[in-house]
Amino acid sequence: SSADVQSQVFVCFVFCFAARMQGTEVDQEDDDGVSNDKRVKRKMIFVIGYIGTRYRGLQINPTVEATAELKSVESVVRDALVAGEFLLPSNADQLERKANWSRSSRTDRGVHALRLVISARLLVRLEDLNEKGHCPPMVQALNELLPEDVRCFGAVQGVKSFDAKKACSWREYEYLLPLEILRSNAEDTTEQMLERLQRQLRRFEGCHSFHNFARLKQSDLAWKETLAQRERGRGKKRKVPANETVPGSPDEPIPSAGEEETTRIQSASVPDNGKEHIAGSQAANVGDVATAPTPCWVEICARSATSSGWRERPAGVMKHAQGTIFMCTADLVPSTDLVRITLRGQFFLYNQIRIMVGSAVAVCAGFLSDEMMDFALKLPVEMHMPLMPPDGLLLSTGGQQLMNERAGHCAMDEVQAKSVMLPEGGFCLLDEQGAAAVELFTRRVEACIAEQWREGGALTGFREKLQTLRMPAQELLDSLRAKVVEVDQAKAE
């Protein structure tokens, strides 16, 4: 009867609504007719590590992926997920849109990672999830499909709203370099070299404008209009030039070589649009192997292209490059001749870590004076600071403390859970087995970096390029010293 049909429809509606509220999805065949094999879609959070030597970076760049000489790490992970039937082939071409894919950080060519978090909606069997939401069978299956230099350490179920990038509140990187690179003379002891290095690294701790310790691109400097220009054009339609790209848009180019993640800071103050500052963003940093051949010398301070003076960053750029470094320390890696520099911060601009480390090393080795570090941090004068090679850089870990209330609280592992005082009911991304696997993988990465420094020629090449640095003339040094005094007095007032 009509009443019976309506009753059945109502019951089905209630069932489907209850299933949706619990985050479940009814098993069904997908658009391509392939059965889910009793799998349901769940937001999974998995932790990976990789040796970046053979890869051109983490993130997939669709425009070059098919023809690029080197693969991206994400393309390798994606292929493994498809092969393991955790991801449908029809969803593999647009991961962000179709699988709600997100990563906690982004690394570039040659950079390694120990604990990088990725979240995505994947197909899993409910019986594979243990009481804590971890999925050991997924970890095992992925590791059987992945190459040896890419490993999965853990996979745990999260709520639908979890986003690996938005949840990440801080990132921790390490840079491993040979102790010998810090030597300024034959009499230097290990303790003296480490003490000099630590003194320079402490300068970076706290909140600073890192405009001289990052590769600011043209889009960083010139993509925004000035406030006055916006006010004049308010209410009027403006045709966007064909060659203008808005940062964060799908058309924005992804860095193919260099360093750690690129994080864009949306600033209330906007930089000047002058061509002088655009030209400044194109200047090469010392040690960047991807740029044109290094001249016989490199002038630390950038000369203005339109006057006889020195180029300065506008206030908008200074604010744009502001960031906070929570920790910057150095110690010896046990049983090696490597020094480990650990840096923890909210975010890092393009090439920031490599330039920070390169500048500190240049001072320790006697190629750069202490006061040049003060000038670079405190003054708007544009400077070309030394850039370390990517060989020693690795993403160590991160903190997922920016989760919303529904997503709950999480930590990377039990050690981090204790340090951040994880609230009751919180969960860890790695179980004991996964944490132990990370430690073993760390030894592999350290051995790989030591071999690269020993046989790759980066040590000799970097010191040779340091010898090309040209310090400012005495007249400019006196001018810079006077400006630092003014800045310090203004802060004191």
Describe this structure in words.
It catalyses: a uridine in tRNA = a pseudouridine in tRNA; uridine(38/39/40) in tRNA = pseudouridine(38/39/40) in tRNA. The chain is of the alpha+beta class and 493 residues long. Among the domains are: 39-167, Alpha-Beta Plaits (2-Layer Sandwich); 173-216 and 310-395 and 456-492, 2-Layer Sandwich (Alpha-Beta Plaits). It has 16 helices and 13 strands. The chain has helices spanning 2-21, 73-83, 95-98, 136-145, 164-167, 190-201, 218-222, 227-232, 275-281, 315-320, 352-364, 370-378, 414-419, 432-455, 458-466, 474-492, and strands at residues 40-50, 102-103, 112-124, 150-158, 170-178, 206-209, 298-299, 322-332, 338-345, 393-399, 410-411, 427-428, 469-470. The strands form 3 sheets. Strands 1, 2, 3, 4, 5, 6, 8, 9 and 10 form a 9-stranded mixed beta sheet that branches. Strands 7-13 form a two-stranded parallel ribbon. A two-stranded parallel sheet has the order 11-12. The radius of gyration is 25 Å and the shape is elongated.
How helical, in percent, are the residues? 25-40%
Percent in strands: 15-25%
What is the rounded distance between the termini? 86 Å
Largest sheet: 9 strands, mixed
Give the radius of gyration.
Answer: 25 Å
Poorly predicted regions are 19-36, 223-228, 240-259, 261-296
- What is the CATH topology classification name of the domain at 173-216 and 310-395 and 456-492? Alpha-Beta Plaits
CATH architecture verdict of the domain at 173-216 and 310-395 and 456-492: 2-Layer Sandwich
Number of strands: 13
Note the run of SSEs as H and E.
HEHHEEHEHEHEHHHEHEEHHEEHEHHEH
Structural class: alpha+beta
CATH homology superfamily name of the domain at 173-216 and 310-395 and 456-492: Pseudouridine synthase I, catalytic domain, C-terminal subdomain
* Average pLDDT taken over every residue: 79
Count of DSSP helices? 16
InterPro entries: PsdUridine_synth_cat_dom_sf, PsdUridine_synth_TruA, PsdUridine_synth_TruA_a/b_dom, PsdUridine_synth_TruA_C, TruA/RsuA/RluB/E/F_N
Keywords: Isomerase, Signal, tRNA processing
GO biological process, one term: mRNA pseudouridine synthesis
Domain Pseudouridine synthase I TruA alpha/beta: 335-395
